[in-house]
Specification:
The protein has one domain. The chain is 8% helix and 30% strand. The chain is built from four helices and 19 strands.
Length: 495
């Protein structure tokens, strides 16, 4: 028995570090971000979730940092012990030349002739290729990577780049509604990549993406007057999990920026896509049967216009309840977002019903109409906007922006309120904000099954299958705003 004791101790240590993977009910490939061999990728979008134009010398705005751990001790259980300080190396899966691929560059069997000079199609095929390099075999499906998503909210209406509710439209002049300093305002950013490496202690791993939208800026001179984004990931081998440290700064030229860390579908559409993507969700969570666990530590909030999402879930189904099929004229992206910035205004109220969903359904199943000012929890909602192609919308209603997705969209933005407490969500403005780091376990499936989403009368209710789950902020039209946050322990649990 004395001889067996070290073996039992080693097995217990393995389970503590990696979990009992055989009985796991996680939907993600890297539950809790605890896997030593990291898989993380980067994508940048313009206002309508496309590329439009690549930044000079940057290639297509898709990149990946994926590696496994190699050790001379890899046949010994001692590799999981924290007192080993040497002998490890990182075996990277993606080369610098892979990450620099861009329009005009051929890659046999990867980039089609149709995509060769089309920045939008090139990014699609490059992401699929990077996903194949990073792919990890698993059950029930293989998976590829966590996704860092960066989006520029500038829109040049004279560019002709964005469709309206999925329909191609000619350039038009609409000054003032959307930020744009003139021709070129929808550009892609500079992307710098610090490939993950072992630090001097032989045990700590760190890597990063960063950059700016001001293409001529010198980041060595500081960030005054320019935009900036950064994501740094760090972990000790065999200990704990990855911590992703985010920063986002806007500027007068780029006042509307978004930065998220996403768990996306491993195949098919993710939230906001109309093409094949790659991600972390080896099983797609479906309402009401899933929860999300994460630890969030917000260092700086990003100012009063930072719509910081404790959680944002995205999916796609048609107004008749059928799944999306790539027809952008009838597909509709659906989003539900919990904003935890305490400075966020409550636009939904009895005097502004157009900003409220038609119904609220309580946890016990009781449903109240938005005109019931005694029972409807107006303060639980920031704003609701309806799909622009909905044919039977209840008036009054505010339509969603018709240009910022490849297809129409429907958005329901929530605020901390007691009605969400039964699902584990924040109940008071300020919960989980700056100076109040928390580990959350959110009954996202239960809540999302009761939220109002538009559907044509008499049609079969859509299956609410969510193809992206993400955390981060959208700083909406604010110069020189700075947000900073740390995210760890991210997991999607099937219940």
């Amino acid at each position: 028995m004395k001889q067996l004791a070290p073996i039992f101790s080693a097995i217990i240590l393995l389970l503590l570090v990696h979990g009992d993977e055989g009985s796991s009910s996680t939907a993600v490939g890297d539950p809790g971000m605890k896997r030593d061999g990291l898989r993380v990728a980067f994508e940048a979008w313009n206002f309508c979730n496309e590329v439009g134009f690549e930044a000079p010398h940057m290639g297509s705005p898709r990149a990946a940092d994926c590696f496994d751990i190699s050790s001379k001790r890899n046949k010994s259980i001692r590799k999981y012990q924290s007192n080993i300080t040497s002998g490890y190396s990182l075996v990277h899966k993606v080369s610098d030349s892979d990450n620099k691929l861009g329009i005009g560059q051929r890659k046999s069997g990867v980039i089609s002739e149709a995509a060769l000079q089309n920045p939008d199609l090139y990014a699609v095929e490059k992401e699929v290729y990077l996903g194949s390099l990073c792919q990890v075999s698993d059950k029930p499906n293989p998976w590829s990577f966590w996704m860092v998503m960066l989006k520029n909210g500038n829109y040049d209406t004279n560019s002709g780049l964005c469709p309206e509710n999925g329909r191609k439209i000619p350039p038009f002049n609409q000054p003032g509604k959307f930020p744009c300093f003139g021709t070129g305002c929808m550009n892609q950013p500079v992307l710098n990549h610090g490939k993950t490496e072992l630090l001097g202690d032989g045990h700590t791993m760190r890597g990063w993406f960063n950059g700016t939208y001001e293409l001529e800026a010198d980041l060595g001179n500081g960030f005054d007057g320019i935009s900036y984004y950064e994501v740094v990931w760090e972990k000790r081998i065999g200990v704990g999990g990855w911590v992703f440290k985010h920063k986002l700064k806007t500027s007068p030229k780029y006042p509307w920026l978004m930065l998220y860390l996403r768990a996306d579908a491993t195949k098919g559409f993710s939230g906001g896509y109309h093409y094949d993507s790659r991600g972390m969700l080896k099983t797609l969570p479906e309402s009401p049967n899933f929860k999300v666990r994460l630890t969030l530590d917000i260092k700086q909030g990003g100012g009063p216009k930072s719509q910081f999402y404790l959680l944002d879930i995205g999916s796609c189904w048609k107004n008749n309840g059928k799944p999306c099929d790539g027809d952008v004229t009838t597909d509709v992206t659906r989003y539900s977002e919990m904003i935890i910035n305490p400075e966020t205004a409550r636009w939904c109220n009895p005097k502004a019903l157009r900003n409220c969903p038609s119904y609220h359904t309580f946890r016990n199943g009781t449903r109240v109409h938005r005109t019931d000012d005694r029972s409807f929890p107006y303060e639980a909602y920031h704003v609701y906007c309806a799909p622009g192609n909905g044919e039977h919308l209840e008036l009054p209603v505010g339509p969603c922006d018709p240009f910022s997705n490849p297809q129409g969209q429907e958005i329901l933005q929530l605020l901390p309120h007691p009605v969400w407490g039964e699902y584990g969500y924040p109940t008071r403005m300020g919960d989980g904000w700056v100076g109040d780091p928390r580990t959350w376990e959110l009954d996202v499936g239960g809540l999302s099954s009761r939220l109002y989403f538009y559907q044509d009368p008499g049609t079969t209710p859509a299956r609410r299958i969510w193809t992206s789950v993400d955390v981060g902020t959208e700083i909406y039209k604010d110069d020189e705003a700075i947000a900073e946050w740390h995210l760890s322990d991210f997991d999607v649990l099937l219940t």
